[in-house]
């Protein structure tokens, strides 16, 4: 049976079960349990080095767990559940690729292809990865560029755009892959302060007008409050506090959350 047919509609979009990630003897995630419901918007906050980006990188299969299990749509991702021998078995690559395609990511660095037009940057992956027809992909790319407010820049080279505009192209490019889950990793950190708002406004619109599952890492607390159903405060690879966005930001209970919020406001 094709993998797509096994999608469990009741399963959370993402589930981490006792996930540990070590780099050498440095434990970055320490038996982490985490669940993100379908259509839920979750923001990860916490000091630098607390493991937030590693979570997103595991979901992009840029890293593999040291121990524990990651599930996407209820299906083992990266590794299979432990067999009787207790050893982690890597998931089948084809199966992984199917799940992996449901996830898109926007990075701090936009990494657009400089030799291609803005439009071609958005068209590239749907054509080459999803096998969409070029005309259909171009039509959708134009719609997505309109959505991010760059309909008039379709033929421009990315290098002629501001950082904020380039990041909006990167958002359109991620959406062109029709992801069900979108990961946002400090998408405004590389931008000049005056360009931050235009990017966050586009993301607010997307959050408001789609049912996409969002997992964000950001230091923009106003944005986190606007888009998130839930905020998770990380410290040293563990969740120290979690709660509805307004509640956690207004009345944090953990001393580390209070200290962290004090440092970013
Ligand atoms: P955050 O996103 O919260 O700032 P990260 O997940 O980026 O934290 O990093 C957590 C820790 O993992 C940091 O101490 C970082 O140096 C370390 N780390 C991340 N990636 C690697 C890697 N590829 N090799 C070694 N250490 C890494």
From TrEMBL:
Keywords: Amino-acid transport, ATP-binding, Cell membrane, Membrane, Nucleotide-binding, Transport. PANTHER family: AMINO ACID IMPORT ATP-BINDING PROTEIN, GLUTAMATE_ASPARTATE IMPORT ATP-BINDING PROTEIN GLTL. One of its GO terms (molecular function) is ATP hydrolysis activity. It is a peripheral membrane protein. It comes from the Bacteria. Residues 14-261 form the ABC transporter domain. One of its GO terms (cellular component) is plasma membrane. It is found in: Cell membrane. InterPro entries: AAA+_ATPase, ABC_ATPase_HisP-typ, ABC_transporter-like_ATP-bd, ABC_transporter-like_CS, Ectoine_EhuA, MetN_ABC_transporter-like, P-loop_NTPase. SMART domains: AAA. This is Polar amino acid transport system ATP-binding protein. Belongs to the ABC transporter superfamily.
